[in-house]
Amino acid sequence: MIQQIAEEVARERGHMEVNVELFQKVEALGDEKLQEAPPMSWTEGAQSRLQQKIVQSPAIAMDFVADMVQA
């Protein structure tokens, strides 16, 4: 799942490959210890778009992926 997210982030940023630094950043998104700032509020539109974005994720990973993206 982390690989899939890292590849998508790389594509969105115009990169041709995923490097170790990007992979580690995506992997660290799931680490709650890294959250120093209070969470941002999400609009209904943003929540809807997030759900559309992760619809391809396996059911067992949906909450994890949503939490990672929101972080």
Describe the structure.
The protein contains 4 helices and no strands. It has helices at 2-12, 20-28, 44-53, 62-70. Helix 1 crosses helix 2.
* Biggest sheet overview: none
Order of helices and strands: HHHH
Average pLDDT figure: 78
Strand content: under 5%
Our measurement of the CA-to-CA distance between the termini, rounded to an integer number of angstroms, reads 16 Å
Spans where pLDDT lies below 50 across 5 or more residues = none
**Helical proportion?**
40-55%
Reconstruct the topology from this structure:
Elements: H1 2-12, H2 20-28, H3 44-53, H4 62-70
Helix pairs in contact: 1-2
In short:
The protein is an all-alpha fold. It has helices at 2-12, 20-28, 44-53, 62-70.
Note the main attributes of this structure.
mainly alpha; 71 residues; single chain; 4 helices
